[in-house]
Amino acid sequence: MSTPANSASRALRIVRTAAELSTAIVQALEGLAPGNSPAALGLVPTMGALHSGHESLVSTAREQNDVLVVSIFVNELQFNDRADFERYPRTLDADIEILARAGADIVFAPEVSTVYPDGRPLVKLDSGALGEKFEGASRPGHFDGMLAVVAKLLHFCMPPASLGVPVAYRAYFGQKDAQQLVLINRMVADLNYPVEIRSVPIIRSAEGLALSSRNQFLTKEQAKAALVIHRALNLVKGRADRHEPLYLEDAAGLFEMEPLVELDYFELVDPRTLQELAFNCQDTPFTGEGLLLVAAKVGKVRLIDNMSLGY
Amino acid sequence: MSTPANSASRALRIVRTAAELSTAIVQALEGLAPGNSPAALGLVPTMGALHSGHESLVSTAREQNDVLVVSIFVNELQFNDRADFERYPRTLDADIEILARAGADIVFAPEVSTVYPDGRPLVKLDSGALGEKFEGASRPGHFDGMLAVVAKLLHFCMPPASLGVPVAYRAYFGQKDAQQLVLINRMVADLNYPVEIRSVPIIRSAEGLALSSRNQFLTKEQAKAALVIHRALNLVKGRADRHEPLYLEDAAGLFEMEPLVELDYFELVDPRTLQELAFNCQDTPFTGEGLLLVAAKVGKVRLIDNMSLGY
Q1: Among residues B200, B233, B255, which one ends one of the domains?
Q2: pLDDT tier at A6 (50, 70, 90 boundaries)?
């Protein structure tokens, strides 16, 4: 792609319906300088409540694409807990300000009636065994609901079928939701969606806490205690980098010293299949590729994090 | 769309891989006369073993589109019975001859490794309650497997995302597989696929037997006995047309007089939701819209048929 136009010159368009979105996408693509071939359209799906983690997604997508669409939709289907859905922060005005500054072209903020005009879908996505483990174990139905809306958004925002200048299509997801990313990649492969999924690294606070819209529900004391997650990941990562045996149980041990933090799981898995790696924690140094997954509860707030190991 | 080019002048391209298919679709679209706007691409998904029923689908799609793709793939996932999958007729050479005569532009006949490169999909389509009744009741998993391949084919054959002359995209399915058609329409709506589903009426033999690739497994005597299906549908349809009460049990009664034919179900349903219509068979004339669904076994061969009632 060519160099993106100066973001200051872009006008952010906010659209609510599928028809407005299509028109806005076509106009934005047509407005590109001629010779912009192949053009590229990037989509960043979000549930709003944007923080620096999202800004990193948006800024990466901004750099890599000519036209940038950010969707904001709090998807009830992926909340297994109604109260969690209701208290999920809705900050549309602040989100739009952030996205205008970040140079997005189009914000797609649909109503529920646009996304689910007939109520809950009758034909559903089934994330199968991949969606039942780890986060799926404590959030039944979460990943099926997430896939339901991503499957729709990928179609809503797809550049139009036509004949002329090709348009590359990419969608961006954060690596923080590692299981979500694996499932989306799997869905795109299993349904042959014509889109390229790109992922963006986790953004952390200076102290190491992975950014999440849930962090705002932590007290200062809880936020400090939650740093054990990063310490545990780093402990194992350091051993992997030094080609030492990993001794995952030492990481779990760190959590026992933090009474405010209740560990749910700390696992080493295959980064593509989420299969637990039957890793011998005795005297064998780690080789190959792995992904450390961790989830812990701090008060009522569930936090997840992960780190790649690999050579 | 413009008048299709003379079918005699078309060269049928047979492609096996996704890359070959994309190239063939782009070349066929680019080969259209200029000013052909909007262009239209039609897809007819089949499992081969083409008969006059398919020819009608293909010929309708040929008339309505500039570029016509027919896919041929015997999808193991939709066979709940391995033996049924194995004996399903594979007649690729004869199919290609029929499609060349019918003026198709592209035959997409992928290998299993193109459609399912990683084996069975991990993220699946779930047809839910709609897929469990009627045909789903006797063929567990059938509709999920059917949706899995249709979801892929709709993406494989989608005209490319680009900027220029718009391309309309349609996929064609026969009304004979009524439950399949309802589920595909539902999937397209629930996942917001950018495709228009068009359906084509049932084709029958002169005697009234709905054409099916399974009919070739019937003896002459069985084929004659199977005509009771059409007689039963016509009996009820006639009453509906004359605004009489339907008395569905009379239709079921006809089957009792045919010892070679074992009725599975004969139901009146809502044509969009397949909800059984709580129809009062006493003295109330039928009003509204309905779909009669029937399935019966003749020897080892399961036959389905249907007929619309409505005003």
Answers
A1: B200
A2: very low
Q: What is the CATH number of the domain that holds A165?
A: 3.40.50.620
User: According to the annotation, is A64 in a ligand binding site?
Assistant: no
Active-site residue, from A54, A142, A155, A243: A54
Are residue A189 and residue A247 in the same domain, yes or no? no
Q: A164 contacts in B (CB within 8 Å)? A: 162-165
Clarify whether residues B32 and B84 are in a common domain.
Answer: yes
ipTM rounded to 2 decimals: 0.91
Residues B94, B127, single domain; the answer is yes
Phi/psi for B222 (5° steps) reads: -65, -40
Distance in Å from the first CA to the final CA of chain B: 31
Flag whether B205 is in a domain. no
Phi/psi of residue B59, nearest 5 degrees: -70, -35
The upper half-sphere exposure of residue B165, i.e. CA atoms within 13 Å in the direction of its Cβ, equals 17
Same domain, B190 and B93: yes
Q: Which CATH number does the domain housing residue A277 bear?
A: 3.30.1300.10
> Could you tell me if A58 and A186 lie in one domain?
yes
Q: Are A272 and A189 in contact (CB under 8 A)?
A: no
> What confidence tens digit (pLDDT) does each residue in B138-177 have?
999 999 999 999 999 999 999 998 878 889 999 999 999 9
B184 to chain A: closest CA residue: A123
Q: Residue A281 pLDDT > 90, yes or no?
A: no
Of B108, B97, B98, give the one whose Cα is nearest residue B67.
Answer: B108
Q: What percent of chain A has pLDDT over 70?
A: 94
* Assigned domain for B189 exists: yes
Q: Are residues A196 and A218 in the same domain?
A: no
Could you list the residues of B known to form a binding site for ATP, using ranges.
47-54, 174-177, 203, 211-214
Question: Could you tell me which residues come within 8 angstroms of residue A71 by beta carbon, excluding any fewer than 6 positions away?
Answer: A43, A44, A45, A46, A107, A108, A109, A110, A153, A156, A157
A174 annotated binding-site participant: yes
Active-site residue, B54 included:
yes
Work out how many domains chain A is built from and give that number: 2
Nearest to A236 by CA among A226, A250, A217, A255: A250
Are B41 and B159 contacting, i.e. CB atoms less than 8 angstroms apart? yes
Do A123 and B123 make contact, defined as CB atoms within 8 angstroms?
no
Of A200, A222, A251, the domain-final residue? A200
> CA B199, CA B44: separation in Å to the nearest integer?
10
pLDDT at B105: 98
d(CA B151, CA B309): 30
Is residue B1 a part of any domain in this protein? no
Mean pLDDT of the region B111-126? 96
Same domain, yes or no: A145 and A242: no
Q: What is the pLDDT of residues A219-268, one digit of tens each?
A: 999 999 999 999 999 999 999 999 888 999 999 999 999 999 999 999 99
Domain containing residue B272: 213-310
Q: Tell me if B125 and A125 make a contact (CB, 8 A cut-off).
A: yes
- Alpha-carbon gap: B164 to the closest alpha carbon of chain A (Å): 4
Measure in Å the smallest separation between the Cα of B4 and chain A Cα atoms: 18
